[in-house]
Amino acid sequence: MSVFPAELPASLDDPEVIREHDWEAFCQLTYMENHWDRPGWTPGRRSYHWMLTFDGADDVQQLAKRCQAQLPATKLDPVPLDALHLTIGRIGFTDEVTKTSVRAIAKEAERSLDLEPFVLGVGPLAGSSGAARFSVTPWSPLLDLHRQLTAATRTVLGERCSMETSKFRPHLSIAYANDRLPVSDLLPLYEELRTLPPITMSAWSAVLIEMRRDGHTYRFGEVFRVPFN
After folding, report:
1. In this predicted structure, what is the pLDDT of residue 229?
2. pLDDT tens, 18-39?
3. Confidence band for 1, pLDDT divided at 50, 70 and 90
4. What pairing do the DSSP bridges indicate for beta strands 85-93 and 118-127?
5. Could you tell me if residue 12 is inside a domain?
6. Which of 3, 215, 218, 221 is the 20 to 30 A CA-CA neighbour of 79?
């Protein structure tokens, strides 16, 4: 799967630079494509991921709800508010990674993670080839978190670890495309929704989850939570 946006923003810390970079990349797309047409996801298959979750982040959920209510429901499947998540990286499908390995990865992350809680800005609305999504800023602490969780995962899985920080582009998806959709049709609506101010929140921990696909919805359960220092 291609990385989007292909290039990093000019600054990893300036919120306005990151948000404009996300928006310009989305505006350059011709179409959104079906997010659910992805290899590997056969019926009943599950996957382990590192994530930030947004349970209890009421302001983020309300911003997502406001935007979701204006998006074309027949073409974009809204993410349930209790399933909003920022994917850090996929560890592997459950039939490829044992529970013993997952416990070892979590313990290694708990032992080695050296990161203080940090503040994130969530919003405004932007998008990718498969999702309507919020920009998330700044990127520096998220890239640092990705590097550290990658190292912990690779310590256990070795070359089977597929996480690569160079391909990580932080974002928070709020709806997934279920068909081909011209981006030009969405831009006037997006521009209106982009006037909603971003939300500020604190990130305190990373969560290792087990995810499944329920029709056109991701659902997941927490396996381990690793707090920041």
Report:
1. 86
2. 999 999 999 999 999 999 998 8
3. low
4. unpaired
5. no
6. 3
Q: pLDDT category, 40, cuts 50, 70, 90? A: confident
What are the residues facing 61 on neighbouring strands?
A: none
pLDDT of 59 strictly over 90: yes
Sheet with strand 205-213: strands edge to edge? 85-93, 46-53, 205-213, 218-227
How many distinct structural domains can be found in the chain? 1
Domain of 67 in residue numbering reads as: 23-36+44-227
Does the residue 10 lie in any domain? no
Virtual torsion, Cα 161, 112, 94, 177, nearest 10 deg: -80
**The length of the chain, given as a count of residues:** 229
Q: Which two tokens stand for residue 23?
A: 């928006």
Largest CA distance in the chain: 49
Give the mean pLDDT of 196-215: 96
In a domain, 80, yes or no: yes
* Residue 105 belongs to a domain: yes
What pLDDT score was predicted for residue 38?
Answer: 84
CATH number of the structural domain spanning residue 141? 3.90.1140.10
